[in-house]
């Protein structure tokens, strides 16, 4: 055990500010590089934390400088984004959320943590917990979707996976929940724009996953780049100090986002770097990532009496306490003993989880599993292994990724491939060759969608259709197919508004970005080896004009009534989404019945599930509540539980979900998704 107070007493101001500074190496760059990584700064103790450097060799070499050559021998903290895997890339978080399976969420985080630790890392900037109801926002890909209950369960599972039972564990890394808070509600879905919402909305929808993360013991939290109700989150005293530290009791480390403290000048709330640094520190931000505002600005802020030395010391204390919890003082090299690359075991997990995240949106006439062997595989995403990693590839290598084409060939199918068009761009010259391919195929598989980098950070889209000329390619193929089955595998980091594509295809499989084993996972589902069981954790709009669209709406005073014109509706499109939250078919055919509640605290909500289909499959069941509260409107449906059951053909079972007894009268709804028409209900 080191004595942190004693250590702080020995530190110069420059050394203290070094502990409050995180600088990037150039392995991955996501913003301006103000301070290039300098070994001299590590030697002089004026940089105490790094991001974007990994690998047992490089991390050990740099740590050695801090330990052996700096005056106080304080170990470096090394962080990196492992959003959905590190070396082994798993499905993007939005896809994983659709598993509705905390054990699976935890298992991929566990592997990612082991791989990070093997690479000498101590912290990952994950999980991303931004609830979002706006598919225009590219970062919806990185998070748990539209619902706070799911976001909270996701937070708990991911933090368990990353941090294991103890941060001192050699295979554990500190998790950093981000981006606190409200980032998912940026104006018009445009990246980095402002957010503005009622306190009620903030507390009901955007804060719960962070509260759950704190309760689960998350080591660090990153405030969002954005401003919320006029105050940038990086300087938001009411939210960081009062809510996060005060109300939630968070005593871990708050790390700014990349260059976010300097951006307080752009927000217009600080006149210079000293003021920006003071605002952030006074709000409770401990580590300055890539602004160099603390090292440059805090000495000036101290002179101007904008900050107190006690607050600097308190921040240094939290950083050193985290290093201590990670056991870095005792053994700074305990992580990073050997790079763990992608292994057969991690690939097997990626393949299995990848297959389970695929969402079967349509399957007319049991088009899938594919009966045909001779298949024309058309579209620009068929042979796009690298894109399968999605918008944040982590330390995953494109050459480690399996394309759809490769997966189908390895599954023994007779496949011919022509892309037809590029993902983006106007060139239609390849369409004719693609159509030729349809002539002697038994079935056609279109692999369409977004490129990996069309979602994620700085990748908002105002148009939610297929990019480029892909819709025209699809239309030409539908014409040409003349009755042959046409299936679509749709790749995206967000729900797409593609009603025409869906209505003309016989089958549609939403693949999101399944990760490094994509081709195998997809082939497993297309050939029937695995029954699809992914459910969309976010509503799919019919058109961008419906956005934001989500199931947790309030009824309003004039809820839609088809027989009354003066009720809430669009004149040119239905109110309902193309696919509701929770939607997803399987190769089974499920029937839910006999909804009942057994008294107690918690209440047991039971529903029988029967598989009337011809193949074994897994069903997901959701529990919603509708509550009334005098004087305050509540959502029509609030998600309160989810469960799963695997059943063979003709088999029947019971799903039991628990619920704290609601105060007052409430109505329960249970069903396979959030569409009212699919729900059983009961008053309690
Ligand atoms: C900026 C992103 O907003 C944040 O999520 C990420 O952790 C940092 N870059 C570091 O890569």
Beta fraction: 15-25%
Helix content: 25-40%
Low-confidence stretches: none
Small molecules in complex: 1-deoxynojirimycin
Number of helices: 20
Q: By helix and strand content, what is the structural category?
A: alpha/beta
Reported for the largest beta sheet, the result is:
8 strands, parallel
Terminus-to-terminus distance: 54 Å
The coarse overall form would be: globular
In order across it, which strands form the biggest sheet? 9-6-5-4-3-2-1-10
Number of strands: 23
Q: Cα-atom Rg, whole angstroms?
A: 26 Å
- Overall pLDDT metric: 96
Provide an overview of this structure.
- The chain has 684 residues and is α/β, with parallel strands linked by helices.
- 29% of the residues lie in helices and 18% in strands.
- The strands form five sheets. Strands 9-6-5-4-3-2-1-10 form an eight-stranded parallel beta sheet. A six-stranded mixed beta sheet has the order 11-16-15-14-12-13, with helices on both faces.
- The longest helix is centred in the N-terminal third of the chain and has 17 residues, at 102-118.
- 58% of the residues are buried.
- Bound molecules: 1-deoxynojirimycin.
- 1-deoxynojirimycin binds next to loops.
